[in-house]
Design brief:
26% of the residues lie in helices and 38% in strands. The chain is built from 2 helices and 5 strands, in the order αβββββα. A hairpin with a 4-residue loop joins β3 (49-56) and β4. α1 packs across α2 (80-88).
Length: 89
């Protein structure tokens, strides 16, 4: 997961050269609670704009916190850099 997160940071910096300061924090996976299927917390900051995401145990989807504070913006992991750049546009 760490390699994927590093790739996201590189891609976001490439896609948004004017916003080249990308900070990413990955809280390690743990056994998910029985009622949830999430086990990674991603904190991403691009030039002062914060994003939070929960990543599913199967590593296919991230649920980003939407404008209203709910983790309901589901994004395929390969599409995270595009999602971030669109949110910042």
């Amino acid at each position: 997961m760490l390699a994927r997160c590093s790739h996201w940071a590189t891609e976001i910096e490439r896609m948004l050269p004017a916003r080249s300061q990308v900070t990413l924090e990955l809280d390690p996976g743990s056994e998910p609670a029985p009622e949830t299927s999430w086990n990674w917390l991603i904190s991403l900051e691009v030039d002062g704009t914060d994003f939070q995401a929960l990543v599913a145990e199967d590593l296919t989807v991230a649920a980003f916190e939407s404008q209203d504070g709910r983790f309901d913006d589901e994004v395929k992991l390969d599409d995270v850099p595009v999602y971030i750049s669109q949110r910042l546009s």
